[in-house]
Backbone:
């Protein structure tokens, strides 16, 4: 099973109630979205673009995950256009991890043909600078500390920190969807049952980011396993979708009904976006966590240790409150 592995929602009370639209902050927080652009990334990106408390300064696509660079960029530009979010710079860097080859089978990865089938509006053009350079210049040019929503492999961020360590001083927080700390992983192979795909796609990059000294909130499978995406949710969305964003999410999820019915689809990346908006949606515990970057049965594991980087780990999310945020943001 892969990153998109389990979503069974706490919907009963939430879906029958009113959905809350986020109130705008006086000064929106500057955000960079670093994403591998697949269906749950689409949802998380739309949440962040539509939340008035955030101002998305850049979208850096990581081609080392579930989409090839060209397809991920095309999808990101279309998502920006769908959200009517203005001119947000978008770019990618590379299709392979910092070390080794991409472990995701090519026929599982989003390509340009798959993006065209999504029916997104035509977006703009990617910027000339690659994703590492875009991430770097966006952080350096920001008068305020930048929040990062990292919902794919951490290749771009690792390289940016390696090239320019001073970037860390202008990072408010990196919200990472990835890993499995005290629960099984995504079964990325028959031998490896401890890793989660976002980390497994580039363990070397993940360890570099974890050990960089940047402030990190990790939203692992320990949290996302508690917010499944069910057919009840999809049916409710079908009956009550009245924004272009909600319509698009419904259409995209409708292509995965077998997976949803199996109980294997979860709100992975959207939960990370929700926790970025309101950390009280989950319980936060500071843990020492490292990433195993040596090939073997634990390759890519986010392992709790006694002397690793200190990271805030999210668990026990409030599923009903998260759904209120999700629907109130995308379908007010």
Residues:
């Amino acid at each position: 099973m892969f990153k998109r592995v389990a979503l069974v929602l706490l919907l009963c009370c939430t879906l029958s109630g009113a959905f809350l639209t986020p109130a705008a902050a006086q000064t929106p927080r500057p955000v960079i979205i670093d994403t591998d652009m697949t269906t749950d990334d689409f949802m998380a990106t739309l949440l962040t673009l539509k939340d008035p408390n955030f101002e998305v300064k850049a979208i850096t696509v990581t081609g080392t995950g579930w989409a090839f660079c060209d397809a991920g960029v095309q999808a990101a530009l279309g998502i920006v256009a769908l959200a009517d979010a203005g001119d947000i710079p978008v770019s990618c860097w590379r299709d392979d991890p910092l070390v080794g080859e991409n472990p995701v089978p090519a026929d599982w990865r989003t390509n340009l043909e798959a993006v065209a089938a999504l029916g997104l509006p035509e977006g703009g053009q990617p910027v000339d600078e690659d994703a590492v350079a875009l991430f770097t210049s966006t952080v350096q040019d920001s008068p305020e500390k930048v929040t990062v929503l990292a919902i794919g492999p951490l290749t771009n961020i690792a390289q940016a920190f390696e090239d320019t360590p001073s970037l860390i001083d202008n990072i408010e927080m990196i919200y990472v969807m990835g890993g499995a700390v005290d629960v099984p992983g995504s079964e990325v192979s028959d031998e490896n049952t401890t890793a989660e795909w976002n980390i497994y796609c580039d363990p070397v990059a993940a360890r570099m980011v974890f050990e960089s000294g940047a402030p990190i909130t990790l939203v692992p499978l320990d949290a996302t396993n508690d917010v499944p995406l069910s057919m009840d949710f999809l049916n409710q969305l079908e009956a009550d979708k009245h924004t272009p964003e909600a319509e698009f999410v419904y259409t995209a999820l409708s292509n995965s009904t077998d997976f949803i019915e199996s109980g294997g689809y979860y709100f992975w990346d959207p939960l990370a976006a929700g926790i970025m908006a309101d950390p009280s949606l989950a319980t936060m515990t500071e843990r020492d966590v490292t990433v195993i970057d040596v090939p073997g049965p634990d390759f890519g594991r986010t392992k709790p240790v006694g002397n690793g980087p200190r990271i805030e780990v999210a668990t026990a999310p409030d599923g009903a409150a998260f759904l209120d945020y999700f629907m109130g943001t995308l379908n007010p």
Q: What stands out?
A: The longest strand covers residues 283-291. Residues 18-227+267-330 form a domain with the Inosine-uridine Nucleoside N-ribohydrolase; Chain A fold (CATH 3.90.245.10). The chain has one domain: 18-227+267-330. Confidence is low (pLDDT under 50) at residues 1-19.
